[in-house]
């Protein structure tokens, strides 16, 4: 089998990605096992303490005196609380599922036809997005948030898969424009999803995903247009900062500040490279808009 040419190079790249994913999955699985051991040890210690207290009460020995704090000199300090360990386990579980989905997406292209690929990913994404609805009804909010995070990864993978297989001819679109459309559509879906499920995670993620949309739409346009789109993105973050709540407001403030700083740096460098006064004035217009926006916010 010849190992030269573009196909051989792509095969080598795929093997490298798969090797990295397997290593990451092994590390996450090992950490998951450690956390499970910590949880089991904490449960066993609590059970032993409860049994000892009951035995002392039966024997007539007081377990403690009023005003005297209980002390256990020989008891080891708990490094991780059960609640924190549970949250870490949920995060690790979501990461493992994401790694498995990425491996499936990368490896299965040669095994399934176009219809099979689209059907499997679409069905799996739908099931994952419906799962939090059931979990919330049963009071498993943390697990529902984890599944919602996994659903975000699947939506982005669906976008990658659609372009890879040429679904509805999207492979003919410009790469930056298609990426902008994918991120924008995913952000819109997450906004609706957050309103329906009342989960806290999807809305801030939607704010983050929406930040690159306008800059990516500039494509091969001039640098002035790129700066203008960065300023427009920061302007769209302002209503979220002023009227948003909780994590959405904080995320919009951080993202908008980062985009505004990037617009200032890129715009200033671009304006300093002008060859004429008229060109400099045109290039500084987005910066003037950014200054007005800053004055409005403050």
UniProtKB/TrEMBL annotation:
It comes from the Bacteria. Residues 50-79 are annotated as: Disordered. Keywords: Membrane, Transmembrane, Transmembrane helix. Residues 50-61 have a biased composition (Low complexity). Coiled coil: none annotated. The chain crosses the membrane at residues 88-112, 118-136, 143-163, 175-194, 201-217, 223-241, 253-274, 280-297. This is DUF2339 domain-containing protein.
């Amino acid at each position: 089998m010849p190992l030269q040419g573009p196909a051989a190079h792509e095969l080598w790249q795929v093997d490298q990605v798969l090797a990295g994913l397997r290593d990451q999955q092994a590390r996450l699985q090992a950490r998951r096992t450690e956390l499970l051991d910590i949880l089991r040890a904490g449960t066993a210690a609590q059970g032993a303490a409860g049994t000892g207290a009951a035995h002392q009460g039966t024997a007539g020995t007081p377990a403690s005196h009023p005003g005297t704090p209980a002390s256990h000199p020989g008891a080891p300090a708990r490094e991780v609380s059960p609640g924190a360990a549970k949250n870490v386990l949920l995060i690790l579980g979501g990461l493992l599922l994401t790694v498995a989905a990425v491996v499936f997406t990368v490896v299965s292209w040669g095994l399934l036809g176009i219809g099979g690929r689209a059907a499997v990913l679409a069905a799996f994404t739908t099931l994952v997005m419906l799962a939090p609805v059931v979990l919330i009804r049963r009071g498993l909010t943390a697990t529902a948030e984890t599944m919602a995070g996994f659903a975000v990864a699947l939506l982005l993978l669906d976008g990658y898969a659609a372009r890879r297989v040429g679904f509805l001819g999207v492979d003919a679109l410009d790469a930056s424009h298609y990426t902008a459309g994918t991120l924008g559509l995913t952000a819109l879906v997450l906004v609706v999803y957050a309103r329906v499920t009342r989960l806290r995670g999807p809305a801030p993620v939607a704010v983050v995903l929406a930040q690159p949309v306008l800059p990516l739409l500039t494509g091969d346009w001039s640098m002035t247009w790129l700066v203008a789109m960065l300023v427009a993105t920061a302007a769209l973050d302002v209503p979220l900062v002023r009227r948003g709540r909780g994590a959405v407001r904080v995320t919009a403030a951080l993202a908008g500040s980062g985009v505004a700083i990037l617009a200032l740096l890129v715009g200033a460098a671009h304006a300093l490279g002008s060859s004429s006064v008229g060109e400099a004035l045109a290039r500084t217009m987005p910066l003037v808009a950014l200054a007005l926006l800053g004055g409005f916010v403050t």
